[in-house]
Design a protein that fits this description.
479 residues; alpha/beta; Aldehyde Dehydrogenase, Chain A, domain 1; Aldehyde Dehydrogenase, Chain A, domain 2; 6-stranded mixed β-sheet; 15 helices; 24 strands; 40% helix; globular
C-alpha cells in the first residue's frame, strides 16, 4: 500500500486504486491510497502553513534539497525506469531516458535557485533607487498527466520549489507509482514538512479542491483541452494564476528535396515511439508530390521492422497502449479513418497478447495514406500510434496545411533547403519547430510550450519557468 504524503506524514486515503501493468494486465504494480476532498484540503492547509518559512529559506537550502533529489533520481534511473515502463507502458530505454530527464531537471533547477537575480535601476527622480526582484507566488497546485509520469511532475515541481513555493501535487490516476517515488525522494532529501504534499485521487474530488480553494495561489496543469478549459474557468473566477499545457495535432512536412532516410526516421519516431502517446507526437505528415509515393512506401517498409511487445522486454520498439479506454479510442479512430475513405497502408491491428502470451493493450502502429485535411483523423488528436499522410503540391501548400489546425505545440519539416527551413521556422504557427528532427524531444533546459489551443500562459522549463512560479516586486528607496 502506497500512501499519500500530507504535512510530512504518509497517510492512508478514503479508497484504494490498483495500478495495473498495461504490458501484462495480470501484474499488479501496487495499491495506492486515494485522497478525498477533506485530505486535499489538509494538504493545501499544510502547504499554506509551510509557505512563509520556505519562501524565506536560503538559496543554498533549496539548492541542497533539489540537488540531492536529482542525484538520487539519476543514481536510480535503471530501477525507476523499469517501474515507469511497468506502470505506463513506454519501452524501457524510453522510460530510463525520461527518468534521466527528471533527474537533470532537478539538478538544473537546483542551480536556478542560486541564480535568481533582479535589477537595480536608477529612478527618474534624483536620490531615488529602484530594485526589481522576484519572489515566490505561494501555494502551487500541480495537476499532471499519465504519459510522462515522472518528467512532467519534475518540470513543474523543481521550479516551484526552487523559487520558494510550496506544492500540492495531484498525479494522474493511471500512473501514481512514479509520482509516489518522487515524493519519497524529496521527503528524504530534506524538505521541511508541508512544503511538498502528494495527494493521489480523482480529479472530481482532489482536482476540484485545488481549483476552488482560495489558499491555492496558482495552478499548473497538463492534460486535455476540455479539462484545461475547466481549469481556466475556475482560476479566472477567483483570479488565481494558471498555466495550461494541452493537446496537439502536430504536423511534419516532408519536401521533395528531403533526405528520404532522415524524413522516414523522423516521422517514425514522431508518430509511433512512446506508442504515439506524446503531446508532441506528429500524427499529420504532409508530403509534397515528388517524394510522396517513395516516402509512404519507405515508411511502411520501415514499420515492418518495429517490434510491438512488453515494454520491458529487450528489443521491443513499441510498448502497449496505456489502458483499455485508450486502446478503444485508438481503434475507433482507425475505423473512422477507414470510413472517411483514407487508405490503411500498414498496421492498426489490436493484439490481445504479447510474444510471451501475457495479456495487454497492444496495437500495431497504423499508417493511413490518401488522407484529406477535413477528415477527423487529420484534425483531432488521437493520442495513439496512428499517423495520416496528406499529399500536397508545393511548400506553400504544405505550410498552409501545417498551420491549419486549432493547435500549435510542435511543427517539423524535413528538407535540405536552407531557404525553406528558415522560412518554416519563422512561419510555422507552433511553440517549437524541428528541422530534420522528430517533433517529439525537447531538452530539459529550454522552454516548452505552444500557442493556440495547445498552451496558455508562460512557458515551462528552463529559465523561462521563473515567469510562472514567481511574482515581480518593484521597490523604491529614498537615499
Amino acid at each position: 500500500m502506497y500512501k499519500n504524503l500530507i504535512n510530512g506524514e504518509w497517510l492512508e486515503g478514503a479508497r484504494v486504486s490498483r495500478n495495473i501493468n498495461p504490458s501484462d494486465t495480470r501484474d499488479l504494480v501496487g495499491e495506492f491510497a486515494q485522497a478525498d476532498a477533506d485530505q486535499a484540503r489538509e494538504a493545501v492547509a499544510a502547504a499554506r502553513a509551510a509557505f512563509p518559512a520556505w519562501s524565506l529559506s536560503t538559496p543554498q537550502q533549496r539548492f541542497d534539497v533539489l540537488d540531492a533529489a536529482g542525484a538520487e533520481i539519476l543514481a536510480r534511473r535503471a530501477e525507476l525506469g523499469d517501474l515507469l515502463a511497468r506502470e505506463e507502458g513506454k519501452t524501457l530505454p524510453e522510460a530510463i531516458g525520461e527518468v534521466t530527464r527528471a533527474g537533470n531537471i532537478f539538478k538544473f533547477f537546483a542551480g536556478e535557485a542560486l541564480r535568481v537575480g533582479g535589477d537595480v535601476i536608477p529612478s527618474v527622480r534624483p536620490g531615488v533607487g529602484v530594485e526589481v526582484t522576484r519572489e515566490a507566488l505561494g501555494v502551487i497546485g500541480l495537476i499532471t498527466p499519465w504519459n510522462f509520469p515522472i518528467a512532467i511532475p519534475a518540470w513543474k515541481l523543481a521550479p516551484a520549489l526552487a523559487f520558494g513555493n510550496t506544492v500540492v501535487l495531484k498525479p494522474a490516476d493511471l500512473v501514481p507509482a512514479s509520482a509516489w517515488h518522487l515524493a519519497d525522494i524529496l521527503q528524504r532529501a530534506g524538505l521541511p514538512k508541508g512544503v511538498f504534499n502528494l495527494v493521489m485521487g480523482r480529479g472530481a474530488e482532489v482536482g476540484a479542491v485545488l481549483l476552488d480553494d482560495k489558499r491555492v495561489d496558482a495552478i499548473s496543469f497538463t492534460g486535455s483541452v476540455g479539462t484545461g478549459q475547466k481549469v481556466a474557468a475556475a482560476c479566472v473566477a477567483r483570479l488565481a494564476k494558471f498555466q495550461l499545457e494541452m493537446g496537439g495535432k502536430n504536423p511534419f512536412v516532408v519536401l521533395d528535396d528531403a533526405d528520404l532516410d532522415i524524413a522516414v526516421g523522423a516521422a517514425l519516431n514522431s508518430g509511433f515511439f512512446s506508442t504515439g502517446q506524446r503531446c508532441t507526437a506528429s500524427s499529420r505528415v504532409i508530403v509534397t508530390d515528388g517524394i510522396h509515393d517513395r516516402f509512404v512506401a519507405a515508411l511502411a517498409e520501415k514499420m515492418k521492422t518495429l517490434k510491438v511487445g512488453d515494454a520491458r522486454a529487450k528489443g521491443v520498439d513499441i510498448g502497449p497502449v496505456v489502458d483499455d479506454r485508450q486502446l478503444a479510442q485508438d481503434l475507433d479512430y482507425i475505423a473512422i479513418g477507414r470510413a472517411e475513405g483514407a487508405k490503411l497502408v500498414a498496421g492498426g491491428e489490436a493484439l490481445s497478447h504479447n510474444a510471451d502470451g501475457a495479456p495487454g493493450y497492444y496495437l500495431t502502429p497504423a499508417l493511413f495514406a490518401e488522407a484529406r485535411p477535413e477528415m477527423r483523423i487529420s484534425r483531432e488528436e488521437i493520442f495513439g500510434p496512428v499517423v495520416s499522410v496528406l499529399r500536397v503540391k508545393s511548400y506553400e501548400e504544405a505550410l498552409a496545411l501545417a498551420n491549419d489546425t486549432p493547435f500549435g505545440l510542435a511543427s517539423g519539416i524535413a528538407t535540405t533547403s536552407l531557404k525553406h527551413a528558415t522560412h518554416f521556422k519563422r512561419h510555422a504557427q507552433a511553440g517549437m519547430v524541428m528541422v530534420n528532427l522528430p517533433t517529439a524531444g525537447v531538452d530539459y533546459h529550454v522552454p516548452f510550450g505552444g500557442r493556440k489551443e495547445s498552451s496558455y500562459g508562460s512557458r515551462e522549463q528552463g529559465k523561462y519557468a521563473a515567469e510562472f512560479y514567481t511574482t515581480v516586486k518593484t521597490a523604491y528607496t529614498q537615499a
